[in-house]
Amino acid sequence: MTFDLSLILSYGPELLLAAAATFGIWAAGSLAAVALGFAIALARRYGGFLVDGPLRLLVEIVRGTPFLVQLFLLYFGGPFIGLSLEPTEAGLLGLSIYGAAYFAEIFRAGLEAVPRSHVESAECLGFTRWQIVRRILVPEMTVLVLPPCVNMFIVLIKETAILSIITVPELTLVITGIGSKYYAFVEALFLLALFYWGLVELASRLGRLLEARLAKLSFAA
Amino acid sequence: MSWKLFEVLVQAAGTTAVISLVSISIGLLIGVGVCAAMMHHHPAVGRLGRVYVSFFRGAPLLVQLLLLYNLLPVIGVNLPSVVTAVIGLSLCTGAYQAENLRGGFASIPVGLVEAAEMVGFSPWQTFIRIKAPIAISLTLPAVVNEAIMILKASSLASVVGMVELTETAKNIAASTFRPLESYAAAGLLYLVLNWIVASGGRLGERLLRAGRT
Amino acid sequence: MSAISLQGVSKRFGETEVLHGIDLEIPPGEVVCVIGPSGSGKSTLLRCIAFLEEPTAGLISVYGEPLGFALGPDGKRQRLPRARIHAVRSHIGMVFQQFNLWPHMTALGNVSEALKTVRRLPVKEAEARAMAQLEKVGLAHHAGHYPSQLSGGQQQRVAIARALSLDPKIMLFDEPTSSLDPELTGEVLNVMRALAADGMTMVVVSHEIGFAASVGRRIVFLDHGRLLLQGGPQEVFRKPRHPRLDQFLDTYLDRGAAMLL
User: Per the omega criterion (within 30 degrees of 0), is the bond before C240 cis?
Assistant: First the structure.
């Protein structure tokens, strides 16, 4: 069996573009997921049970079903409700919604972990709800939610690979495409695995560094 | 969606459940082995375990499955796609379970081990009578979690040619031109499967604590 | 012969010297109470006697038997094999601040475990002996309960029973009541009082000055890793006192207690 990586590597520019696409989709999707997730967590906390109930149901559904099924629903089912999406659009939307559900859970747990007494003393001092969120909850919560958030970012890096199944032009699709052109599947996939593995290791290390830095300024909870 | 088609989906859900169960079980065994390696005193063995965990948690499952699917024939091994899928899923979940188990051992309060030392336990006795039982009971919730992850991850088995729930839904969607119903129904079945596993986990936890509180 | 003998025991953690050359001789049957401010090295000293920490210098012996390190023919310390350490340690029982009961075993299970696993007694005999110990600490009727079902005071008493199950000659107590609610300390201190009355050699690290003054035969005052004072309670607590001891009693304890003594 020949194991010739040079063939694949010769596609340098295409690979770089695809990697950039992967990064772009991941970054945009993660950001949207964090924002949406935080909004959901706040809405659930302060919106009363009419908001909390349905949101909780939605979050559980998204967290309880495979990402692939959600993508298929959006991409293939979307047109039937007037939502005609390009693969990349569907991928971005799918990633954002998927991530948002998980971030919503992480932030919900984080908000609850902030001691009641800290919130109550702020209330006694006359803080408005928004001020409490900004000045008490978010700072105190950050240290607590950082590890699960870093973990989720890493999970999302890996989930971008699934976008290839609906033909989003990210790295997995491009490399397997090159591989299939030359029947060099194993080399292509091996390279792909190494790439993600390296990226995930890097992200994990950066995450741990960040956690250590922040732990120094931690608030005793 | 007609009931007949839904029945087909339910059958596919059964397939998904079975391959998930088998993968989790094999993964548990792999996890115990890899965890033992990670905690081994020989540095090379420990490193091997850590590299295994790092790789199988670092590369996307999709890529792992594709790699396995394409690699095996090249080295002369020809397996039915079910087996390939189960192997791929087991190897992946094995890494997560190894890490969970390692975490379980790490969170045993050191005082409990010191107390064992003080009454004269040998390291092996401490491991068998104290550390292992406690680590296992700490890890149980994580195993239930992993089972749910595998149920969802099994949807990727279709890329290695296995027909499970997601693939069946895709086929039905294609033939009936009703993707919304098909995938929604599949999603529902996944939720049902997850609920069954989660309930089983809660029951298991309750039985474990029986008489303790 | 001393039950416990410490000669020049020092302990360093990294850069910090926590114990400086402690010399202490404890005769059999004596109750020694070690007091001092936080960070003075009291717990470290106790853990060195238990060999849960290894002293970086100095020698410890239990009834003449060296523990952990012995003086080699060249005058340098030699580490002893694990079997010998275990043999000497079998004379020592330890009670921890956090009780450290094994959560997956009942009270009876905790107390009988060492008899079954280490002494290899048949289950019936091990459990009979364990029940006797539980009766001594007043918890026979809780034998089938798990630690999570017991109060702090009850858990600590089970821990004492567990330590006693192997018939040690020496009992070490590391702040046994510090994790307990105030109303639960009494039941534990009473068990310790009874043990002392029975003639057990005890080394107790504690903030319970009342206990130290009434039950202790010798008070040892540790400050910044040095043994500043030792003597009978009358000697040590009589005024005029050593200024550091006065400072300790004033700052760390209820002013009332300091005045009463």
Answer: yes
Tens digit of each residue's pLDDT (9 = 90 or more) over C11-20: 999 889 999 9
Q: Is residue B92 part of a domain?
A: yes
Say if B89 falls within a structural domain.
Answer: yes
Query: What residue type is C148 in one-letter code?
Result: S
Q: Give the residue from chain C lying closest to B119, CA to CA.
A: C114
**CA angle centred on B164, ends B158 and B168, rounded to 5°:** 90
Residue type, A170: E
Contact call for residues C134 and C108 (beta carbons, < 8 A): yes
Q: What is the pLDDT of residues B80-127, one digit of tens each?
A: 889 999 999 999 999 999 999 999 999 999 999 999 999 999 999 999
The label of the residue with tokens 């095996």 reads B72
**Which residues touch B57 (CB under 8 Å, ≥6 apart)?**
A200, B92, B95, B96, B99
Residue C20: which residues within 8 A CB-CB, separation 6 or more?
A: C10, C224, C225, C226
Measured torsion, CA atoms of residues C232, C237, C241, C243, in degrees rounded to the nearest 10: 100
The parent domain of residue B126 ranges over: 3-198
Q: Which domains does chain A have, with CATH numbers?
A: 5-216 (1.10.3720.10)
For an interface test with B, which of C62, C90, C113, C175 has the most B Cβ atoms less than 10 Å from its Cβ? Answer: C113
State the CATH number of the domain containing residue B10: 1.10.3720.10
Chains A and B touch (3+ CB pairs under 8 A): yes
Residues B111 and B115: their CA atoms lie apart, in Å, by 6
Task: Please state, in angstroms and rounded to a whole number, the distance separating the CA atoms of residues A158 and A197.
Answer: 9
pLDDT on residue C260: 62
pTM above 0.95, yes or no: no
| B206 occurs within a structural domain | no
Choose, out of B70, B92, B170, B191, the residue to mutate when testing the contact with A (most A CBs < 10 Å). Answer: B70
- Structure token digits, residue A90: 């569907």
Cβ C147 vs Cβ C103: under 8 Å: yes
Three-state DSSP state, A216: helix
B209 domain residue, yes or no: no
Q: Nearest C-alpha of chain B: how many angstroms from A182?
A: 14
pLDDT in tens, B141-186: 899 999 999 999 999 998 888 899 999 999 999 999 989 999 999 9
The answer to whether C237 touches C227, Cβ cutoff 8 Å, is no
Q: How far apart are CA A29 and CA A40, in angstroms?
A: 16
- List the structure tokens of B180: 């919304």
